[in-house]
Amino acid sequence: MDPRKDTWKEADKLEWLSRQKFQRSYADQVLARIEKLKAVGGKLKIQSYGNLSLQGRTELVIDGATLSAEEYKNRYPLYYAEVGDITNGKPNIIVTGGTHGYEESGVYGALEFLEKHAIDYSENFNFIVFPCLSPFAYEVNQRWTHDAWDPNRSFDRSKPYVPEAQLVMDVLDEARKRAGKNFAAAVDLHETPDRDKTMMPPQYQRYGINLTADDILIPNGYYLISGVTNESPEMALKIIEEVRKVTPIAPDPEIHGDKNDKGVVISQGSDPTHQGLNQAYMRTIADNSFTTEIYPEIHPEPRGSSEAIAAQVATIHGMLLGC
Ligand SMILES: [Zn+2]
Q: According to the CATH classification, is domain 3-321 in 3.40.630.10?
């Protein structure tokens, strides 16, 4: 999204904010699990990479409460996990969850991978995992930051006002230098829930692009967006093979104008409304990059939620099998 075409002013953002509510707790549901991971020690190291900040704002009024800039900063400390030693020559892998805070299976999938699998896989791989990179959006169960920016349109250096994306790039640019080679693969864990019918139109309308709920396709299953420059086409096939064991693959022949080849969509990366995608940045530092799109409502709750998390974890397994 081109910020120059943005029709939203501060008043529009404040109006949007006034309608948000804290719906879950970053401290209880994410940080508590990260604290436990700190205790694992050994090859698994939890690293701080800063805190979110209110940037220009002095306070945030939400849900009947007022958070000062200091309170906001303290509420959102940021952590990633580094598993293994990225300079030891093994393939280095990136996992990002919660780029969109409301797509919760990405957050829980990244955490579950760290808790149950990362140490075993560290025999053959090293990992950098960001479990929840947009924690304010996670708490209000929304797509955007407090300043109404989409982190998944902000992975380029022209948007310094979106720390959710910029701080991740700081960590990974430095890691790429330290490793002295590209990452072997990167995956960004997303969902396409039914809620996108109401979430997506306003995101486009504010940039003057007319889009209604009818224009939003919700594929009836999982699909994988594979980077157009990926070195290993087999990796995507391995991912689909693993994911198929836990959730159905989207049968739609075409998804957002691109061919859906048995669950794999190759994004050409030329759509101007997709500028600043996490995956586009990952292509600059990783030989293979992926974005998952899981349909969390494919089965009614409670099955849907656990199935979506299983599909995120299966994606990482498949990616490693294809490495
Ligand atoms: Zn998403």
A: yes
Residues comprising the chain, all counted = 323
Half-sphere exposure of 108 (CA within 13 A, CB side): 15
> Model pTM greater than 0.70?
yes
Q: What spacing in Å lies between the alpha carbon of 103 and ligand 1's midpoint?
A: 6
Kindly report, residue by residue over 127-178, the tens digit of the pLDDT: 999 999 999 999 999 999 999 999 999 999 999 999 999 999 999 999 999 9
Over residues 295-322, the pLDDT tens digits come to 999 887 777 789 999 999 999 999 999 9
Between CA 74 and CA 69 the distance in angstroms is 9
Distance from residue 95's CA to the centre of ligand 1 (Å) = 14
Cβ neighbours for 168, distance < 8 A, ≥ 6 positions apart: 49, 80, 96, 130, 133, 155
Q: How far is the CA of 20 from the centre of ligand 1 (A)?
A: 19
- Boundaries of every domain in the chain: 3-321
Q: How many Å apart are CA 293 and CA 253, to the nearest integer? A: 15
Q: Report DSSP state, residue 2.
A: -
Does residue 105 contact residue 296 with C-beta atoms inside 8 Å? Answer: yes
Question: What's the rounded Cα separation, in Å, for the pair 242 and 321?
Answer: 9
Strand ranges inside the chain, DSSP E: 44-51, 59-62, 65-68, 77-83, 92-97, 126-130, 185-191, 223-227, 254-255, 258-261, 264-267, 289-294
Q: What are phi and psi of 116, to 5 degrees?
A: -110, -25
Report how far ligand 1's centroid is from the alpha carbon of 99 (Å): 7
Q: How far is the CA of 193 from the centre of ligand 1 (A)?
A: 9
CA distance 127 to 47: 13
> What type of residue sits at position 109?
G
Centre of ligand 1 to C-alpha 190, Å, is 4
Distance of CA 90 to the CA centre of its chain: 24
Rounded to the nearest angstrom, the distance between the alpha carbon of 86 and the centre of ligand 1 is 28
Backbone angles phi, psi at 271, to 5 degrees: -70, 120
